[in-house]
Design a protein that fits this description.
two-stranded antiparallel sheet, about 600 residues, globular, 6 strands, mainly alpha
Length: about 600
């Protein structure tokens, strides 16, 4: 399927004499080997260079054991799935220090660490500096230039989200380049530059269906532009201290989304299984919803040990939070605060009844998502969550994640050659981006809501959202008032609710909290399931677990009794490593770090 990316790392360059076929090739990126005068001569040279960039930027689930950690977030390399563990969506066994005054890695970290790493930018700029040397037509060369611009936009977007102002580098630098000691480029200039190169990528990249298999196309660049525009537009709107106009970026988002809206459709099926099934597959060929994905190849013995360790709940040993669970609507379209069909919180079985079907396709009810084999290590994690006090890997809240669970002993047994596919860009996000950007522009009509939010609700048989008849939610309104200082309009609240529910555990929540200036939502007390002793007869209260006055599990009762504290004076941006500040006197640390 040509609207996808399928990356086969093991065999990309092995047949090419320029590079040795070694297991660690794509980790080393040996640029020094290709600067001689014999390179940059033909299309194949440009293609080979571009090939080496794909695994850096299209990570998916990672590769091999996929056991690395990505800084500064402190999250497993598979950020697609595990990125939410630093947010209010999840509680890992060891609590995250990101966003709190306990985060201090930057004090002793080496230069170029903690996300302040320009290695990828150097590689991208090296291509930009040299690609014209190839004796090929501009049209052919520009295909690969479009890929490089796409990756450069992706890289810089991440840096701006982390640090705000960052140095914009247009050329590859050497040890004597004066730019190494330049101050940071203002955020506004960097973001304008990102849009500029994204527009070039859109112009240069082939249209969907005409690109070479496994390569980036125009739609993927439009998707990234939609995401970038929404993030920056809303960040500017709610971070008024920047003094930057949000409107043009919100329009960038709507324009890019409109380019994709007629091209894709949501996958349909049984409302009780369609959502979960979307994330448990080995292929997205022919899928009408997934715009970019990473495939793993059995033929090339290339894969990732994702499904096995996810089934064991090994990475981060986490559980979802009550904060997330309580946000799902009831089946009548009302909230748990107001719906007559809500069965209460007396047990997980009760509270998961009569809810948005995506809830039980995201969170395991007791007895569901049972492992298909008891031979795999960690099989005692299902069908019940493995609470503290029980043997094996832990689910500290009792809300075990069912989304991404691929119940395939065959794939588990592949270990590092696991073949579960990783969806990178999903059409559902475009619908959510469009609805939110249109709202922020004052253009969210009922037709817009029907075109976006209601398509997502229709798929799982939920009542449609009608402007002017939004459900009351005193619980969520109180959270906004307490932790954000004000309530928000009911329509915006419901658009944001839909985003949290639909995109849970797809690594969007942290960015959402940052751009909405709602980082203090991380301070909402972390609670788990209502503990029922008869369901866990050997678990000892006040020894293995601790409970709130309502009987909900408190996973951090001992480790952080006062709860997490998001520091709004500084935590919307990450700090630059101190060593880099010392090396470059023109760099200034982010405020209050």
């Amino acid at each position: 399927m040509k609207n996808t990316i399928k990356i086969y790392l093991a065999g990309l360059l092995c047949a090419v004499s320029l590079f040795a076929c070694k297991k660690d090739f794509l980790d080393r990126y040996p640029l020094d080997n290709i600067v001689d005068q014999n390179y940059w001569k033909n299309e194949n040279d440009l293609k080979l260079y571009a090939n080496s960039l794909y695994p850096r930027y299209i990570v998916g689930f990672g590769t091999d054991f996929a056991d690395g950690t990505v800084q500064p977030w402190g999250v497993n390399v598979n950020t697609l799935v595990y990125g939410d563990v630093i947010t209010d969506n999840a509680a890992p066994l060891t609590y995250s220090k990101v966003g709190t005054n306990e985060y201090n890695t930057y004090l002793s970290a080496a230069s170029g660490s903690g996300g302040w790493d320009f290695t990828g930018i150097k590689q991208l700029n090296f291509f930009i500096d040299n690609y014209k040397r190839a004796e090929i037509s501009a049209d052919v060369a520009n295909k690969y230039l479009g890929e490089v611009y796409f990756f450069k936009a992706m890289d810089y977007f991440t840096k701006v989200k982390l640090f705000g102002d960052v140095p914009w580098l247009s050329h590859a630098l050497n040890i004597n380049s004066p730019e190494l000691y330049a101050p940071r480029t203002p955020r506004a200039q960097v973001m304008d530059s990102i849009i500029n190169i994204l527009d070039k990528a859109i112009a240069y990249l082939p249209a969907k269906g005409s690109e070479e298999t496994n390569r980036v196309n125009k739609d993927m660049a439009q998707f990234l532009k939609s995401r970038v525009g929404l993030f920056e537009g809303t960040y500017r709107k709610y971070h008024t201290e920047l003094g930057l106009d949000p409107v043009k970026f919100l329009k960038y988002s709507t324009d890019a989304s409109e380019a994709l809206l007629p091209k894709y459709t949501l996958v349909q099926g049984d409302k009780n299984t369609v959502y979960n099934s979307l994330f448990a597959t080995e292929s997205y060929r022919g899928n009408t919803e997934v715009i970019m994905w990473r495939e793993y190849s059995a033929a090339l013995t290339y894969g990732a040990a994702f499904s096995r360790y996810f089934a064991q709940n090994l990475r981060h040993q986490f559980g979802a939070t009550r904060s997330l669970v309580d946000e799902y609507l009831c089946s009548d379209g009302q909230t748990i605060s107001t719906s007559p069909v809500f069965q209460g919180k007396g047990s997980i079985q009760a509270e998961l009844q009569n809810r948005d079907p995506r809830l039980t396709q995201t969170i395991c009810n007791f007895g569901t998502y049972a492992l298909a084999s008891t031979t795999i290590q960690g099989a005692n994690n299902a069908p019940l969550p493995n609470l503290p006090g029980l043997s094996g890997n832990k689910c500290p809240t009792g809300y075990r994640l069912g989304k991404w669970f691929y119940n395939s002993p065959t794939d588990w047994d592949r270990v590092t050659n696991g073949q579960q596919a990783a969806p990178i860009f999903r059409y559902a996000e475009i619908l959510l981006n469009y609805a939110e950007a249109k709202y922020e522009l004052g253009e969210a009509t009922q037709a817009v809501i029907d075109q976006t939010i209601n398509k997502l609700r229709d798929r799982v048989g939920m009542p449609r959202l009608t402007i002017g008849s939004e459900p009351a939610d005193p619980r969520l309104d109180a959270i906004y008032l307490t932790y954000a200082g004000k309530t928000i309009a009911p329509l915006l609240r419901e658009i944001r609710r839909e985003r949290r529910v639909e995109m849970a555990f797809e690594n969007t929540r942290w960015d959402d909290l940052m751009r909405w200036k709602t980082g203090r939502f991380i301070d909402v007390p972390v609670e788990g399931i209502k503990f029922v002793q008869s369901q866990f007869p050997t678990v000892v209260v006040n020894k293995d677990i601790y409970l709130s006055t309502e009987g909900y599990i408190l996973p951090y009762f001992k480790t952080i009794p006062a709860g997490r504290k998001f520091d709004e004076s500084k935590a919307y941006l990450f700090p630059i490593p101190n060593e880099d500040i010392l090396l470059n006197k023109n760099l200034k640390q982010n405020p209050n770090w």
